[in-house]
Amino acid sequence: MTVLELRGIVKAFGDDVVLRGVDLAVDEHRVVALIGGSGSGKSTLLRCASLLETVDDGQVLLDGEDVTDPRVDADQVRRRMGVVFQAYNLFPHLSVLDNVTLAPTVVHGRSRAEAVEEARALLDRIGLADKAAEYPDRLSGGQQQRVAIVRALAVRPRVLLLDEVTSALDPELVGEVLSLVREVAAQGMTIVMATHEMGFARQVADTVAFLDGGVLLESGPPAQVLGEPQHPRTRQFLARVIDAGRL
Ligand SMILES: Nc1ncnc2c1ncn2[C@@H]1O[C@H](COP(=O)(O)OP(=O)(O)O)[C@@H](O)[C@H]1O
Ligand SMILES: [Mg+2]
């Protein structure tokens, strides 16, 4: 079953055409790693998928429903997706616990007691139960990103969209965030993640999709796209990544 489908997504900023007709289908319980150089359109694609940007052409389907139809309430749709960015995901003026319970209570109308219980269980799972009352600036970057991920999960999203969630972190903090993503994936969450962590993509993703200049040039199982890339641009990109020590 396809949870998220992008059909012919076109997006321009002024004269700058950033996405040139991208098709991508993400099946339930699958992990898609979106790779590509800086400026290739990964973030824009995730922002279009989560309706944080309007598309100029094409459709986003969530559980088969065209959610880019102007008659659809975009706020309602966004509530069915979890989105985590590179950094600054948490509300700095709210405690860790309140960060995690805010959307479930205010947006989804769950009782405070139920939301708190679930938030505490989630924080416990990531070993941060003792940080519930702290403010985000008292946490390391890795802890903040893990809280951001469980906060996104707290609304029980249909799909989790992760945009380079480890790239703003000090190298020693990357592992703890990737472990959490791995665990969330193993539990069956449907995930689309833009990442520069090729080793992680190879291990965790079911599909690797290579974006280049707003075109999805190549996609398939990690062994194929990372191991035997068909397109010269993919090979070039991977060679650069290997040089940077990330494969
Ligand atoms: N809000 C925006 N306004 C204008 N240009 C943008 C905006 N967001 C992204 N872009 C441009 O779109 C292109 C793709 O950016 P982005 O999606 O961030 O790529 P990536 O995430 O792969 O690095 C870049 O050229 C970037 O400058
Ligand atoms: Mg980006």
N-to-C order of helices and strands:
EEEHEEHEHHHEHEHEEHH
Cα separation of the termini: 31 Å
CATH topological fold name of the largest domain: Rossmann fold
Residue share in helices? 25-40%
At CATH's second level, what is the architecture of the largest domain? 3-Layer(aba) Sandwich
| Number of E-type strands | 10
Going by CATH, the homologous superfamily of the largest domain would be P-loop containing nucleotide triphosphate hydrolases
Mean of pLDDT:
95
Q: Count helical runs.
A: 9
Helix/strand class: alpha/beta
Report Rg: 18 Å
Keywords: Amino-acid transport, ATP-binding, Cell membrane, Membrane, Nucleotide-binding, Transport
Domain ABC transporter: 4-238
GO cellular component, one term: plasma membrane
Protein name: Amino acid ABC transporter ATP-binding protein, PAAT family (TC 3.A.1.3.-)
Task: Please outline what is shown here.
This protein is of the alpha/beta class and 247 residues long.
Q: What are the defining features of this structure?
A:
single chain; 247 residues; alpha/beta; Rossmann fold; 4-stranded antiparallel β-sheet; 9 helices; globular; binds adenosine-5'-diphosphate; binds magnesium ion
